[in-house]
Amino acid sequence: MRVGVLTGGGDCPGLNAVIRGIVRKGVQEYDYSFIGFKDGWRGPLEGDAVPLDIPAVRGILPRGGTVLGSSRTNPLKEQNGIRRIKENLAKSEVDALIVIGGEDTLGVAARLADEYGVRVIGVPKTIDNDLSATDYTFGFDTAVGIATEAIDRLHTTAESHMRVLVVEVMGRHAGWIALHSGLAGGANAILIPEQRFDVDQVCSWVSSRFRASYAPIVVIAEGAMPRDGEMVLKDGSLDSYGHVRLSGVGEWLAKQIEDRTGKEARTTVLGHVQRGGTPSAFDRWLATRFGLHAIEAVRDGDFGKMVALRGTDIVRVPIADATARLKTVDPELYEEVGVFFG
């Protein structure tokens, strides 16, 4: 059995742990051989691959990013994209393909499996933690830890100058990073995509905090929107999957707060620092288990499935089901943390 592996979409702490788990178990227990396709779907589109064996994955467990590279290449928008992928998989004598990615990358995998008969296994990857079929995705814990540490640090500088600090974190459609890091970091307001926010209410929370002689921290997800407006963007450019490139709402909100309250406000956009660096212990553990179970699914011939975390168990679900809808923050959960606002 010859197995191909690729990592697509935004890079994420824990990707290398998945690759290592796949290769170690596949070689040691099943005597499989492996190749890694470079830069997401670009690899199988262009036949760009490298050998993967145990020496190739040695020492990569604590490394961030992905040794295979990644991209947002969308083969469904490439001329003869599906045909080229199938031809290159056949040319490389690949019997099965393990695809590690998020909503978009796995959406392509689902099409390949369901409509074109490609033998695919999916592994969920997104720091946003927004895939509905799994309790957690690896990379999320690391991102929350990085954001929480940043908020902890920003408290002291905010209080030194008695100014508002707005912290913009990742989260296009789901506010899980903002919710977890904001609560853990003692933010005075947390704004998420699932709940449109009232600028006047945010300013009221800010003013309340100042009356208590403390400097407020506002955590906002990049996809959060004001109640009486649209998504705030720096530009309207799109990626290959049609997603607008986000960032800018933090700066916009800081200006609104400053204009309406008269208090000085500054913005910190954490951006890609949330994706970078070494993965947390939890993300290494989860990513490794996903890799081990993904290669088991290949052995069992259970294609068209994605491995997922349910409680403490790793289960398999149809890839199409996993990408059918996003996992967003429940309104009751958001209301629960609202006691700390203001």
Automatic annotation (TrEMBL):
<dbReference type="InterPro" id="IPR035966">
    <property type="entry name" value="PKF_sf"/>
</dbReference>
<feature type="site" description="Important for catalytic activity and substrate specificity; stabilizes the transition state when the phosphoryl donor is PPi; prevents ATP from binding by mimicking the alpha-phosphate group of ATP">
    <location>
        <position position="104"/>
    </location>
</feature>
<dbReference type="InterPro" id="IPR015912">
    <property type="entry name" value="Phosphofructokinase_CS"/>
</dbReference>
<feature type="domain" description="Phosphofructokinase">
    <location>
        <begin position="2"/>
        <end position="298"/>
    </location>
</feature>
<feature type="active site" description="Proton acceptor">
    <location>
        <position position="128"/>
    </location>
</feature>
<dbReference type="GO" id="GO:0006002">
    <property type="term" value="P:fructose 6-phosphate metabolic process"/>
</dbReference>
<dbReference type="GO" id="GO:0048029">
    <property type="term" value="F:monosaccharide binding"/>
</dbReference>
<comment type="pathway">
    <text>Carbohydrate degradation; glycolysis; D-glyceraldehyde 3-phosphate and glycerone phosphate from D-glucose: step 3/4.</text>
</comment>
<dbReference type="GO" id="GO:0005945">
    <property type="term" value="C:6-phosphofructokinase complex"/>
</dbReference>
<feature type="binding site" description="in other chain">
    <location>
        <begin position="126"/>
        <end position="128"/>
    </location>
    <ligand>
        <name>substrate</name>
    </ligand>
</feature>
<dbReference type="GO" id="GO:0046872">
    <property type="term" value="F:metal ion binding"/>
</dbReference>
<feature type="site" description="Important for catalytic activity; stabilizes the transition state when the phosphoryl donor is PPi">
    <location>
        <position position="125"/>
    </location>
</feature>
<comment type="function">
    <text>Catalyzes the phosphorylation of D-fructose 6-phosphate, the first committing step of glycolysis. Uses inorganic phosphate (PPi) as phosphoryl donor instead of ATP like common ATP-dependent phosphofructokinases (ATP-PFKs), which renders the reaction reversible, and can thus function both in glycolysis and gluconeogenesis. Consistently, PPi-PFK can replace the enzymes of both the forward (ATP-PFK) and reverse (fructose-bisphosphatase (FBPase)) reactions.</text>
</comment>
<dbReference type="InterPro" id="IPR012003">
    <property type="entry name" value="ATP_PFK_prok-type"/>
</dbReference>
<comment type="subunit">
    <text>Homodimer or homotetramer.</text>
</comment>
<dbReference type="GO" id="GO:0030388">
    <property type="term" value="P:fructose 1,6-bisphosphate metabolic process"/>
</dbReference>
<feature type="binding site" description="in other chain">
    <location>
        <begin position="170"/>
        <end position="172"/>
    </location>
    <ligand>
        <name>substrate</name>
    </ligand>
</feature>
<feature type="binding site">
    <location>
        <position position="10"/>
    </location>
    <ligand>
        <name>diphosphate</name>
    </ligand>
</feature>
<protein>
    <recommendedName>
        <fullName>Pyrophosphate--fructose 6-phosphate 1-phosphotransferase</fullName>
        <ecNumber>2.7.1.90</ecNumber>
    </recommendedName>
</protein>
<feature type="binding site" description="in other chain">
    <location>
        <position position="222"/>
    </location>
    <ligand>
        <name>substrate</name>
    </ligand>
</feature>
<dbReference type="Pfam" id="PF00365">
    <property type="entry name" value="PFK"/>
</dbReference>
<keyword id="KW-0963">Cytoplasm</keyword>
<dbReference type="InterPro" id="IPR000023">
    <property type="entry name" value="Phosphofructokinase_dom"/>
</dbReference>
<keyword id="KW-0460">Magnesium</keyword>
<dbReference type="InterPro" id="IPR022953">
    <property type="entry name" value="ATP_PFK"/>
</dbReference>
<keyword id="KW-0479">Metal-binding</keyword>
<dbReference type="GO" id="GO:0003872">
    <property type="term" value="F:6-phosphofructokinase activity"/>
</dbReference>
<keyword id="KW-0324">Glycolysis</keyword>
<feature type="binding site">
    <location>
        <position position="103"/>
    </location>
    <ligand>
        <name>Mg(2+)</name>
    </ligand>
</feature>
<dbReference type="GO" id="GO:0070095">
    <property type="term" value="F:fructose-6-phosphate binding"/>
</dbReference>
<dbReference type="GO" id="GO:0061621">
    <property type="term" value="P:canonical glycolysis"/>
</dbReference>
<dbReference type="InterPro" id="IPR012829">
    <property type="entry name" value="Phosphofructokinase_III"/>
</dbReference>
<feature type="binding site">
    <location>
        <position position="163"/>
    </location>
    <ligand>
        <name>substrate</name>
    </ligand>
</feature>
<comment type="similarity">
    <text>Belongs to the phosphofructokinase type A (PFKA) family. Mixed-substrate PFK group III subfamily.</text>
</comment>
<keyword id="KW-0808">Transferase</keyword>
<keyword id="KW-0418">Kinase</keyword>
<dbReference type="GO" id="GO:0016208">
    <property type="term" value="F:AMP binding"/>
</dbReference>
<dbReference type="GO" id="GO:0047334">
    <property type="term" value="F:diphosphate-fructose-6-phosphate 1-phosphotransferase activity"/>
</dbReference>
<dbReference type="GO" id="GO:0042802">
    <property type="term" value="F:identical protein binding"/>
</dbReference>
<feature type="binding site" description="in other chain">
    <location>
        <begin position="272"/>
        <end position="275"/>
    </location>
    <ligand>
        <name>substrate</name>
    </ligand>
</feature>
<feature type="binding site">
    <location>
        <position position="266"/>
    </location>
    <ligand>
        <name>substrate</name>
    </ligand>
</feature>
<dbReference type="GO" id="GO:0005524">
    <property type="term" value="F:ATP binding"/>
</dbReference>
